[in-house]
Write a structure and sequence with these properties.
The chain has 200 residues and is mainly alpha-helical. The chain is built from 3 helices and no strands. It is rod-shaped, with a radius of gyration of 44 Å.
């Protein structure tokens, strides 16, 4: 029964399947790339904010150091001592050491934070490449399975068409032979209908 559309050749059918799976893969890769880009942008935004965030912490440490120094000097003045006295110098050294330690800790935290984000970006890149490779392999496997299923269907279809033609030609032969036996058709008509030449 005709559907109103011309039947596709096997080559056209295979090309159609390949086109379908190519479109599917392109959509999957586009989706994976969008997710990857979004994650990369998020990490890079965090990385871009790091210098300012850690500079704020350093500024706070310097401010606290300046306030501690001011308080130390005021205390020394209130006690009537010179700002350059021995006790004053010890407190000043402690304040300076505390400042350097705090700033050093902040710098290490910033470096650790930056290293962690860079590691996350590297892992993200590795995962993205693995995901795209897996998508390509999965898509190819699905396409191969679809092409194999089509080939199997086509082989079965071709066989059923051949069987139908054989059956039809067999019926034509039987009918023509019966008519020839009853002398209702001539030998020439029998040969024309069946394509089989009779001995003269």
């Amino acid at each position: 029964m005709s559907t109103g559309r011309a039947a596709m050749t096997p080559e056209q059918a295979k090309a159609s399947l390949e086109k379908q799976y190519k479109s599917q893969l392109e959509a999957q890769l586009k989706k994976a790339e969008a997710a990857y880009t979004q994650s990369v942008n998020s990490y890079q935004a965090q990385l871009a904010k790091a210098p300012e965030a850690y500079q704020t912490l350093r500024n706070q440490a310097y401010t606290e150091h300046a306030l501690a120094e001011q308080s130390r000097k005021e205390n020394m003045a209130n006690m009537g001592l010179s700002g350059a006295g021995g006790t004053s110098q010890t407190l000043q050294q402690r304040n300076q050491t505390a400042l350097l330690k705090t700033v050093g800790d902040i710098n290490r935290q910033k470096q650790d934070y930056t290293d962690n984000i860079n590691l996350a970006l590297a892992n993200l890149d590795t995962q993205y490449r693995a995901d795209t490779f897996a998508l390509e392999q999965q898509n190819q496997a699905e396409l191969n399975a679809a092409l194999m299923a089509y080939d199997q269907w086509r082989s079965g279809y071709d066989l059923s068409v051949d069987q139908y033609e054989l059956s039809r030609s067999s019926r034509v032969f039987e009918q023509a032979w019966a008519l020839l036996q009853k002398k209702r058709i001539t030998k020439a008509q029998f040969e024309q209908w069946t394509g089989i030449r009779l001995r003269r």
